[in-house]
Each structure stands twice: as structure tokens, then as C-alpha cells.
Queue: 4 jobs
Job 1
Amino acid sequence: MLNGSGTPSLAQPGREYATLLIGYAVLGIGCVVFSLAALLLNLLLRGRLRNRFGRRMATYGFRAYLFGLERIRAARFDLEALDALGDRGPLIIAANHPGLLDAPMIVSRLPDVVCLLKSSLLRSIFWGAGARLAGYISNDWFLGSVNLAVEELRRGSQILLFPEGTRTEIAPLNPFRTGAAYISYRSRVPIQTVIVEQDTNFLGKGYPFFRRPGMPMHFRVRLGVRFDPPDDPREFTDTLRDYFIGELARSSNEVPAKR
């Protein structure tokens, strides 16, 4: 925004910082409400009903939050490509992981997806109860995590994981873990790649929590290649990482499409 002299208005950084704080406040309140509801539902519900209910709560909760970020002009999201996966049955969804909004963006479009996440998130006062309600899986125990993921796929669910294991720290990508390849090898379910593109490093690894990003931020998620189950998981993991590096290089100069 420009003032009468053609220079940027000093009010704009203040508005953007206020928008940042509002976004954090809404997320915090939403997490507390969701966690309290999840604690109660974990006691009342059992088995698959509990998990299905928890996953749909996560989907619609994140969808509402992202909608709120758009309404306050903090961000714009182009996530429609994910809608094509919702009724495709069991899939292993592998995505790059530039920031903390990656999982909420994907979960907001897929109502029966099971996330593989750090065990610390399962213990978190903000996320833990909801993650347990949804039946999310810790990625810290390799063999057990693979077995649980395979069981979920056989029940018809989808699995979301980030092969880097954490947010991208070493450009262009961290080394990949072999979990996605082994789950696909064991289950014979294909791996659907998902490319996350953004014009900001907001909430990336090492990003200061209260640093004000330029707004509105733009995020786009697009579908990549769907790989058949591998015969050699370790070799395939290198192939998968090379594929992501190529895709990110191809889109590095593109700004995610505005809606």
C-alpha cells in the first residue's frame, strides 16, 4: 500500500503484524477447544468410529482455519488438486515439507488420511488428544510405524507422510527416510507425490515465530507422479528424492497461483 507520496504506508507493517497475532490467537484457541473435545471423545468413543470422527474433526477444523487466514488476508491457498485424491481409496501420500502449514493444508482436503508424525506431537497438550482421536501414527518407531501404516491402508485409509521426516533444513531437501518406500513395498499400495509450493519461508525450520511475513502469503499444492510399489525400497528412496528435487527446481521461479 502506498501513501500520497508514493512510498509504502507505515501502517501496513502494523496491520500485517496484527494479522499475524490474530492468526496465532485463532489457532491457539482452536487447538484448545479441539483438544478438550478430543479428550472427552477419546473416553466416549471406541475403535474405528473414534478414528473416523477424529479425522473428520481435523479436516473440517483445519479447513475452517485456512478459510479464516484467507478472510483476514494473511494467506491464499490453492489446494483444489487434492480433491482428486479423496475418493481414490488407499494411497501413500508423500509430500515435501517446507513449513508447519503443510500438514494442515493436506489434511483439510482429505477426510480419511492418517498422518505419520513425531511422537512429541502425540504428547503435545495442543495436538496430542486430537492426534490420538484420529489414530495418527508416531514415526519414531520404524518397524512398528510401518506395520501400523500397512494396517491402516488395508482398512482403506490413506497415509500422509513427509519423507524428510521434519521440515526442510538443508536446501533443496533433507535426506529422505525410507519409511514411504517400505510401507509401499509391504502394502503394495502406490505412492502419490504431492508438491508444496509457497512464496514465503513462514514457519519453516528456524523461522522466528514472531517474524512478520509479507502478506498475503501464497501456497499451492499440486499433484505429482504416482509411483508403483517399489521392489527395492532403499534404491527407490533415492529415486523419490531425485524426483522431488527436479520438481522443486522446475517450480522454484513460479509464484503459487492466486485464486
Job 2
Amino acid sequence: MSKENSKLTRIRMKITFLGTGTSMGVPVIGCECEVCRSSNEKDKRLRTSIAIEVDGQTWVVDTGPDFRQQMLRAGIVNLDAVLFTHEHKDHTAGLDDIRAYNHSTEKDLPIYANIATQHALKMSFPYAFPTENRYPGAPSIVAHTIYADTPFEVNGVGVVPIEVIHGKMPVLGFRVGDFTYITDAKTITLAEINKIRGSKVVVFNTLKKTSHWSHLTLEEGLELVEELKPERAYFTHLSHRMGLHEEIQAELPKNVFLAYDGLVLEI
């Protein structure tokens, strides 16, 4: 483990999986497959997002279309920051609903995003950014620009960004202490993999078993786990084409798990 990464360990965290599905969620509208018809709650997946509770703070990674529902379901009353992985709508479309937190705190909500994601947010939610004639009751954010090669802090807690490639798009994952969260990855360079090394718990997106041009498959996710050898690994951003939760889980190594909505980890 690098000296930089060793400084990040020994941070206690609680991770809640707010959503573990793909851009269409599970069940998919109009689909009659066995996964979409399953009565198992672990087969019902909102769009991918997590909450991180650390050092008395609560952060959310991405505000997808299900953001409001996720906050209510998880009972998240206080929100201190949002970290964005990238600009796709299944990770940003719920930003408007942060205004409930603006109203309760009477403060702007800090967001952390790269330049491309900020540009996309400004196109979709121009009224959420500082303006001279802000509409009363509109969401209110203060944006912090982050870069793939530069660690940053959120209210004193260190975060290491990890750049992965989603098709041809750069996407950010994040390492906090012994925890690394990666979503919407297809390829990861050795330099970025080295940032992950030493993490006790890792999360990767694994869309399905068969090949996909912009997401890791189940086999590719398992190969990364074998390379990194974390204590525990969790797979998220799962499509209905992955298969039934219980059947796939039974096939996995003992330290690898399919994440599901509502799963809570203590790290």
C-alpha cells in the first residue's frame, strides 16, 4: 500500500446501498422475465447510489432519478455533501430534490464533481447554481471541482478519486479509508488500480454475465477481485439480465457478494 493510501485507513464508516440497479432499474417496465417478476426484495433495484456516513457526516454518491425515494426509504434526515461519479442521467436526474435539505438547513449543499459533470448539471439544473435572481424555493448548491489525479477533502475527510473508463467516458470512483466504490467502469488502468490496492472493502459495477461494451461483466468483476484480494467485495449496478439474486450469489466466492437495495456495511 502506498503512503498516500495508508493515511486513509482507520476511518470508521457506515455504507448504505440506496440503489443497486441499472439505468432502467429492476424490474424493467414491461419486462416479464423471471427477475422482473421475482417476489424477492433483493431482486428489486433502484438506480445505483450509496450513502456514506463518516466522521459525523452523511454523503451521497450520485443523485439518480430515484433520489427522493431513496432518501425517504433510508431515513436520511441530514445530508452534508453529494459526490458525483459522472453526468449520465441515471446518476444525476434527481438533483432537484436536494432542495428539501436546503430548506431544513437554510444552507447551500456542497457538491463535488468534475468539470464535465458540472457542465451537464448546469444544462439540466441551471436554477440550482448561484444566480442573481434565484427563484424562491429552488435547490441551492455550491460546486467544488474535483480532478482525477488530485485527492480532495470533504469537510476534513480525505477522498482519493479513481478514474475508470465507461465505454469512452472517464468516470470517477472514490476511495475513503479502507473502502473503494467504483461504478460504470469497463476498463481501469494499472495506475488507477494501484490506488485501490489495500482497500478492505471494494464495490464494482457488474452489469450481467455476458459481454457489454461499457460495463464490467460478472467474470471481469471477479478477475478484479482476484487481482486486488480485498477482504470483501460487492457487485452493484446489476441488470435484470444478471439473473436471480439468490442463484447468482450461490455461485460466488465466499468473500464476494451481490449488493442489494438497503444493504448496510460497517467498515
Job 3
Amino acid sequence: MKTYTPKIDDIQRTWWIVDAEGVPLGRLAAKIAQVLRGKHKAMYTPHLDTGDHVIVINASKVMLTGNKAEQKTYFRHSGYMGGERLIPFKRMVESHPERIIELAVKGMMPKNTLGRSMRKKLRVYAGDQHPHQSQNPQVLEINAKAS
């Protein structure tokens, strides 16, 4: 018996579009990370980028459950002494709503060169307009829409 390993020429990438409105951030990021890695395909191989392209719209309308909207903060550091910056979730939604989803997906991807190349296939937009109409993206359903 021989194990099938896909060649780079065998990989076919499709485009998916996800509406983030009213979807919990963790469920959304987990599903996006799965599609970016290619785990939804039968030809998934851990050492190859077999994933698809993902477009996320309405990133500013993503939700958090419980009290996380008031308690969650994002950390960054300038590299200088005392250069910590803590940004609350509410301020991040107002200023950079795309980064919320990008950072959540980044935490679920491999932390190596392959993971960085997989993350380049993610495009996040705060509103409902995107410039990728010509790719004819398919709708990716996240099964847990909160109401």
C-alpha cells in the first residue's frame, strides 16, 4: 500500500465567503482556520498548504459571548521598556475591526513559515463590500448563528 501525497499542481483552491454578523468569534475563527489549512479536504496533508481562500465580511459585527466584550483586551508591545499597550475589545472594534478576526485566526494556525503563508489567503473586511466578486466565492456556513 502506498500513501497518496498530493503534488502542488494537484491542489485546487476555491474561494469562500463568510458573513461574520452575529457569529461568536471563536467559532468563526476555528472554521476559518480549518478552511485555510485545508482540513476540510480529503487530500489534506500537514506539510503542504492545501487550503482555500477565505473572505470575511461584516467583521465589525462579530460578537463575543458573556462579559467578554467588556473584559477582553488585546496586548502589544513596542519593544521599549514600559512599552506595553492594552487595547480593549470595544476600542478595537471601533478602530480596526479586521484585526479582531485576523488575530483570532492567527492563534489557531501553525506558528511557522507554512502557517504564515496560509494566513495570506485570508481577507477580512469591516463592511459588507469586498473587491473579490470575480472569484465567484461560495458561501461558507457557520452552523451556530446566535440570535
Job 4
Amino acid sequence: MDARKTTLDELNNRAANLSGRSALLGFDGFVDRIVHPVAQRHGQGNRFTPMKTIEEFGKRVLGAVGKSTNIELSLQKEKIGGNGPIMANALLALGPDVRYLGALGKPAVHPVFTEFAARTKAVSFAEPGVTTALEFTDGKLLLGTMSGLDEVTYENLLQTMGEGAFHDAISRADLVALVNWTMIPNMTAFLTRLLEKVFMAQPPRDQRSFFFDLADPEKRSRGDLVTALRTMARFQAHGRATLGFNLKEAQQVVAALDLGDYPESPDGLREMATRIRQELNVGTVVIHPKESAACATRDDCWWVEGPYTENPVITTGAGDHFNAGFAAGQLLELSPPACLMLGVSCSGYYVRSGESPSLNDLEAFVRNG
């Protein structure tokens, strides 16, 4: 199977449909400060050599044991952050109507979110967190301050938006994407209230998609993680539920569910996605390492190679752009391998350019590799 050709053929027939679809996303929000740790400074401004790897940074930190050290962080960019806003922004660029509910500032929207909030008709009901993202060639370290996310609750959203308006907005959405479970302490309770107060009262819709993303659950307990996964799986009764993981998250999930060990190979990724999907009985599980992606549905499992680059312009937000591309494919009713190709291509375009692609940009990127 040629996933690239399949994707282009399917897009040719269905791409125009995306502007008629709607998505509702939530509930986090962060102000992202992208920084480069300075290894050696040669002058003012950008005249410095950055620390290139996490190992180099780690050695500098470990060298301070019993002493002290100073590490300069050179601010490269301040932008909207959080899994939800970045995914929503990426979906906006691709074409569907997007509504955002989340932690963008209270009582006033934080200035970094002003344009985004206007474009997504956002409802903000909590203060955003702040993430200082240390970027390296081999990964990134995200240092977060997130007390505002304690206020992300079902009750606070209703108090701000109104129960009727919220129920109407979520019932109309073709895609409901609820992400960053790890950073939102009350998210599992929020999801439970959605199931009990909203979706139990609505008939299931075959064309409604749910998308969930954990956002690195390492700091959460195994019990909390398993409860959250099984709560997310319950949404399958009300539409088509997809769980999205990067490689590390998928490995944490299989460990929490006692599903064994899998090699980091195409076959291993497909098998890992299949076992998680079977255990949780959801529609789709997708796993996206940096170099590729795999997914499993009730019908089969697939793997595609991604357009990996060793010299990205930016890496923070790459996974959220994968999620946006994959979810856009689902909104268009594309085949699973085509959804995977849109995901890796959306991420690939973003890390090379620092910009979210339009659907035309994405199609050209798929065509040209």
C-alpha cells in the first residue's frame, strides 16, 4: 500500500468537505516560553552557543551538586501553548470551524490568546499555566507552573458559559477533542460529568468523533491513569473514540494496563496500538513516535513512515499538530493510513517552518515528501 498516493487520492475527493465540519476543543491553556539554555555566551543578544542535548544540560545540572550553578535561558519566542490551543490553532489553519473552551485567562483573556480567542469564539473560565520549554536537538524539557488549571472543572465552565449554551455547543460538534489530562487535576471528574450530564441524554452519533490525549502521564499514579483511560473509553458508546499517544505515553499505558513489552519497530508499534485498543475497547488507538506513526481500529492496524528531520525549527507543539492532522483526516472520513499520513505531514510541516499548514500546504507537503 502506498499511503502517500492513497492520501492524495482521498483528499482529491473529500478535501472540500472540511470547511463544513465543526470541532470543539478544551480545556487547558498555557503561555509557552520557548528558550534555549546557553552553553557559552560570545556577546549580547543571540551571540551564544546553545546546549544542544539534554545530556549536555544534565551534566551541567549534575555538576552543581553540593555547589551551585547559573544557567541562562535565552527567550526565543512567547506564544500560545497548551495541547488544546495548539491543536485548535492547527485545526483552524486546516479549515474546519473551531470552538475553544478552556484556561485562557480569568477574568480577562491573557494577551497572548487575544487573536486565538476571537477566532475560536472562546469561552475562558480559568487562568492559563506557564510553560518554559527548553528545546534540544534530542528532545525537550517542559517546566510548568499550572495552579490555574485547578479551576478547570465542569461546574466552573457552566458558571461562565451557561449550561444550555455548553450543551448546545458540544452537541453540535462533529469532533470533540479533550486533551492534556495529565495537567488538569479534575479532568477525569470533568469527563465523568460530561458522560452523565450531557451524552447520556443525547442519542449516539455515528459521525461524531472524540479525541483524547494524555500529555505525558508520568507524574500521575497508575490508578489515576487506568481510571482515566477507562473513562475515556466510555465515550465510544456516544460516537467514535480515539486515544492518541506519543511513544513514551504509549509505553506508560501498556505498563499501567499490564500489556507486556513491545519493540520500537513498525510491527511493535502496530501490535502495541492493537493491544491497547482491544483492552480498552475503543474505536481507534494511534501512536506517533518522532519518525513514524501507527494506529489500530477494529478492522486492522497500520504504520506509516514520517518525514523526520534532524534539524527542526521548533519541536514544541509537534505532537499537537500530529493530532490535528489525524483528527482532520477523521473529520473527512479518510482511511486510517491516510489519517496517519495527514498526521505525520502536519507535524513535519510545522517543525520545519514553525507555522501551521493550510490544507493546500498539507496536500503539497504530502505530494512532495
